[in-house]
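hey so i finally got around to running both of the ones u sent me last week. sorry it took forever, my laptop kept dying halfway thru and i had to restart like 3 times lol. anyway pasting them below in the order u listed, first the sequence line then the structure token line for each. didnt double check formatting much so if smth looks off just lmk and ill redo it

first one:
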Amino acid sequence: MLGAARDCMPVYSMCGWYYDNDEDLSQYKAQIEKALSEGYRAIKIKTGKYSIQDDERRIRLAQDLAGKDRRIMLDANQVFNRNEALRRGRLYQQMGVFWYEEPLPPQDMEGYAELARELDVRIATGENLYMKYQFNDLIQRRGADIVQPDNRRAGGVTEWLEIAAIADAAGISLASHGGGDVNMNMLCAIPNAIYMETGGPQPRMINGEVTAPESPGMSTEPRLK
């Protein structure tokens, strides 16, 4: 009913968290290995909490585990100012990561535009933006290569489709912040969608892609107490 553009969607696992008492990165390594064993061909890791040398260590380990055929995304969760975001972005770019997510606070549209101009690595952001108007502001400034609407904030199905259309007209890709069948239904109706965020075993995953749900409606039920 939404106008399907595809019947499956590439997914990535948000698995590279910061873990307590993990100075040797053994827990971090185990979670990445688990995601790869489940069939994911792309993973996302957290960066920016500690030094740039620690970031490099975390990225290098993830790359060694994933090999050349799998993608690594980075998520900095708004921790940098513009200068530090650019400095670390140059390292991330040199290391060949697939995207660099949320290095700045969401309201710093000019900062995102500056980073996108200065860096070749893909800039991804949008999980903390509301409605098509904020996304349009970001897109008009050329502040992102990938927009990431969140199903809890971005305004519902119709708003998602309008955000996607604005991005598509500007040559910008879309990836969801969050996963599940509701997101999957919407992503399958968006021609410029490239990834759904998720984690854990996915029973419908084939070659790193999850097939569309077949149950009625949005394929989910409200949780009842």
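and the second one:
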Amino acid sequence: MGTLAFRSVLFFFLVFIFASLCHATDDHQVRRLWPPTPNKYQLEFVGVFTSEADLGISNGSQFMEAVFGESWQENLSRPTSVATIEDNTVLVTEWGSGDIKVFDFSQKKTGNLFKSQFSLFENPVDIAIDDENNILVADQKKGVITVFDRNLESIALMDGNIEFEKLEKIAIDSVTQTIYASDSVLNKVFAFDRNGQLLFEIGAGENSEDKLKSPHGLAINREGNLYIADTGNSKIKIFDNAGNFLKIFNFKQDKDDSVLKKPWDLAFDSQGKLHIIDQGSAALVTFDQNGELLFATMAKEPTNHSMGLYRPNDIHIDSKDRIIITDDLNNRFSVWQVLTKAYLAENPITEDDVVALNNYIEKGKSDLAEQRKAKKAIALNDEPGKKVFKESEKKAKKKQRKVVCPNCNQEYALVFIGLGGE
């Protein structure tokens, strides 16, 4: 992808932390906390996961790697969605896969969920778990939602006699047991009961505010209202649990520009904060329910750096407030931990953590300055190089994005640091 030395972003990407869903203490590791001081930390980056090697290598794995090399590990291929069962098991669907990949963080193993010799799916695009641990899988090519019980037996096919054109996302209201499904070609969201019977449709109203354009992500807040990522209109629209339009989610900002470009999926954490992944800006953007922007995690453009995003397409927040995001073009999922009181009680942020983090940031800034200095020296040795250098500097400044973060009480126009050539 080339050097990232001249690419501007909204925030400092920090350093690598142990690849596990549980925080591990190590004097040689720096906890990557966001946003940086003097602001209040909101998230901690945990890591990215694409194969069993990312979970910690067992003795058997070490033997296989010694014999066959690292390539024997089966990596994720275009993951489309993610969900969790229990505390340390992550289920991942992949584009065109006939099974579901399991990442077992307790056993440090990966594998297939069904282990069937037959393909159960043609193109699974979303997965959800209900309160009875039934697994719901939306198959875009088949146009159905299949329900599996805890014994992995298929117990229902849900379609409500709807001929889905492009099934996208599903969500379950744990109170009413309503199951929602979006279709980006039909421009509708459908609501079903537990038996798969159609209850109502959203998006077919005559008012422009009711209408949807290429809807994708779905999330339900504490009050039972349905939040829809109206992707084609770059909006988040809110409906009650009977399908009645309530309002458009209002982003509080000074300018009329939309905060979102291509909102793809969204989820609420236990504190009621709304987390949105935006494919248009390859970003994770977080708001409170009043529309105040709390923090944004994004680069100037898509990236394959471990802490960046290329094409995020699914977000899931588990019972421990871990944010899990699938990135299909990076063939992985990333994990961030919301800094709740419970998490901080077990993993307090120490003065040493803050010092190590700040030292890393300063070193990154220094390294970046040296990289720029070296590149400028090389470019100025010849006229064509000088012209290319000036153009790259001009473009970098022009494309630099800024966002006002009320929670941080300052405007961020920060730079990518410490990324090398990743």
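quick thing i noticed on the 2nd:
The radius of gyration is 22 Å.
anyway thats it, ttyl
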